[in-house]
Amino acid sequence: MSAPGGTGLPYRDNVGAVLFSRGGLVLVARRADLPNAEGAAGGWQLPQGGMDPGEDPRVAVFRELEEEVGTAKAAILAEHPEWLSYDLPPELLGRALGGRYRGQRQRWFALRFLGEDSDIRLDLDPHPEFDAWRWARLEELPALAVGFKRPIYEALAREFARFAAP
Fold first, then answer.
1. Three-state SS string across 61-125, please?
2. Domain Nudix hydrolase: where (predicted)?
3. Is the full-model pTM beyond 0.85?
4. Which pLDDT tens digit goes with each residue over 96-107?
5. Which CATH fold would you assign to the domain 17-161?
């Protein structure tokens, strides 16, 4: 299947984590490449990342949590029943995602955080993706997302709403 505009680029397989605190809030992190985007859509996002070829999504989501937020102290609560995908906007095609993908095909998980806030460490990676994090209400997610990812965040807020309570 080719992308809009005839690019012919494939989707990148990816996993994402909606990490719920014991109080029902969700971990969001600020992209290090957008440090001045405090309130801007796209400046804050959920942990997510690419899957290795043949990697089980349930294994990948814990690896990504460890890499991006410094801890995998979590338990899977649910898996979104479908792969969710997005296409990059035309201005990012050929630039974002190494220029090799039209967008991402994502498997999302709801997880319960089992650690303490001090276990969340953004400083362990020499080139961190995030420079700040906070707990947010699930219903805030769509407003935090960059426009082309907003439908995915809306779907996650609907599908995982039952976990947004203490």
1. HHHHHHHHHCCCCEEEEEECCCCEEEECCCCCCCCHHHHCCCEEEEEEEEEEECCCHHHCCCCCC
2. 10-158
3. yes
4. 787 888 999 999
5. Nucleoside Triphosphate Pyrophosphohydrolase (3.90.79)
